[in-house]
Amino acid sequence: MSAALLGNPGQLHVLEDDIESFAHVLGWTVMSYFPSPMDRYTRAIWLFLYYHESHDNSKNDTGQAVGGIEKHFHLGWGGYPLAEFTLTEPSPILELIRNLSSPFRARYDIPLTAKDKETFEHLNALVSKGQLDEVELYNQPVYRYRLDMERLNSPEWFLGTIQDALERPGWLAEDGAGDKLAVSAQGTIAGQQQRALPLVKTDSQLLSASSEPPKENHSASACTAGQTISLGCP
After folding, report:
1. Which of 2, 60, 76, 215 could form a disulfide with 20 if both were Cys (CB 3.0 to 4.6 A apart)?
2. φ and ψ at 65, to 5 degrees?
3. Which CA distances in Å does 73 have to 1, 108, 166?
4. Chain segment 41-74, per-residue pLDDT in tens
């Protein structure tokens, strides 16, 4: 489920939430099943952080459970799934997930400032006069935001990105699902939460200090947890 829907229960469910959820389904599958140099315990931790509904029983003012902090944080700075996660055998699937996730920076990143807009307009005027190469605009926050928003509002862009990935070489011939590689480590849900909470709280502090809460959100259905560590659901 999208970080926006997890963060603000009851908010309007929009198309962007479904597209983001699709990227999370792919992310959960790859991090759960694809061989990676990342050890199983670390993978279990990150699956818990990304895909468990709530890490510390957080609730909003109306008593509804809220979550999605790690999704919000990593999508906002363009690092979903985390850069440390790689695959043992190269595959277009991981690049596809990162490409599909990239436009969501516009949804979760720090809001543009008046200074950002002023700088962009100044540089854009220089480009119009032929005094500056257009490439100088590409790293500007306003340019990135507009490009991300254009893609975010274009189902055709998402479909084209998926089609391009499917046409690339490198897909494994034997790609059937095997055993889950990100197995539950020894311990209980409570123990896992205690290990995960420092990471969640750190990102939560950074998030609250640098950006506003997600704009449009919704609550997630709870994942069923057994006696061992829950790996959550996308």
Report:
1. 2
2. -65, 140
3. 15, 7, 28
4. 999 999 998 987 655 567 777 767 788 889 999 9
